[in-house]
Amino acid sequence: MNIQTWLTEKDPKKLAQLWQMADTTRQTNVGDAVHLRGLIEISNNCIRKCAYCGISALNTPPRYRMNTAEIMNCVTKAVEFGYGTVVMQAGEDYALTTKWIAGLVKRIKTETPLAVTLSLGERPLQELEDWREAGADRYLLRFETSDPKLYQQIHPGSNDRITTLKQLKQLDYEIGSGVMIGIPGQTYVSLANDIQLFAELDLDMVGVGPYIPHPETPLGSGQIKPEIAINEQVPNNEEMTYKVVALTRLACHTANIPSTTALATINKMNGRELGLTRGANVVMPNLTPPKYREQYTIYPDKACINETAEQCQNCLRGRIAAIGREIGTGAGNRKTSSL
Fold it and tell me: Where are the domains of the chain?
């Protein structure tokens, strides 16, 4: 499979073949179940200065931090709705202490049947180990690009996330990562390398979605302009997103791949459904209370931002049924390949 050739393919008939190959690979390896993972955005505080992110320390959105009771109310809803996992996501917020997160994880694992995924940024290895011992099942950390020069431009002062992912694997987490598609400075060569790296890291979950500019960030406002030739720049459009979802499935047969909120944002009508028919097998309904959800502004105009948790889960169940797929049960751990 020549990844770079597929990334630049324009022929609708050939792309239809790509969608079919990805969907067949998905069905063969992970089946027709779509696993629902309830997202709880527990804090929008962040010490990092990532050039593309609306909640970075460079920006001034209203800040919030959910308390234990608020989070557990969301967890209770996840159980009621039949979700298999809760995903606790935040900016890199050190007021979320090691002990507090560990206690929260232990409580969820003791009181519910849910798997727990953490997505809390670049934390020290000892903290990651403590959270694993407390019962956390998965950790999500997007490396965003395998191009070292571009990485430093968009993540000033950031750590080597690829090394951290390998350490998480050694701690026996299921690990998730991914990239933004079409971020300024991303070439077809580097994106092809990203997809190859997904397979090399043996990722258990891969999240890919389009880059959506935030106008109040250095990258979105044009303060930072990575210099590459126009014909080398990957577009951040819908078709390119489907290509990357499909190619990721072909590179990582058994990985869990979400049809992301960012994809649903650029195509609110049926973006999630098309992602699910082109390789994806996971969706992440949002459990965050609306009063906080609208402040978790990584990018603007996010899909479903004003919906309640109940509205979100009802909508997604209907969308999944409409494409003839079933709702997954249990934690939805990565399957062993049938090939």
Answer: 3-326
Cβ pair 256, 203 in contact under 8 A = no
Q: Classify the C-alpha dihedral 177-181-184-185 as positive or negative.
A: positive
In whole angstroms, give the CA distance from residue 3 to residue 120. Answer: 31
| Cα torsion through 107, 111, 113, 119, rounded to 10 | -20
Q: What is the pTM of this model?
A: 0.95
Q: How many CB atoms lie within 10 A of CB 307?
A: 16
pLDDT tens digit sequence for 155-208: 988 889 999 999 999 999 999 999 999 999 999 999 999 999 999 999 999 999
Q: Cβ neighbours of residue 2 under 8 Å, at least 6 residues apart?
A: none
119-128, pLDDT tens digit by residue?
A: 999 999 999 9
Cα separation, 284 vs 294, in Å, equals: 17
What's the CATH class of domain 3-326?
alpha beta
Angstrom CA distances, 247 to 53, 175, 197, 212, 291, stand at 26, 19, 12, 21, 37
Q: Which residue has the tokens 């239809």?
A: 16
For every residue of 245-310, DSSP letters joined together read: HHHHHHHSTT-B-B--HHHHHH-TTTHHHHHHTTT--EE--B-S-HHHHTT--SSSS-TTTT--HH
Pairwise CA distance, residues 241 & 182, whole Å: 9
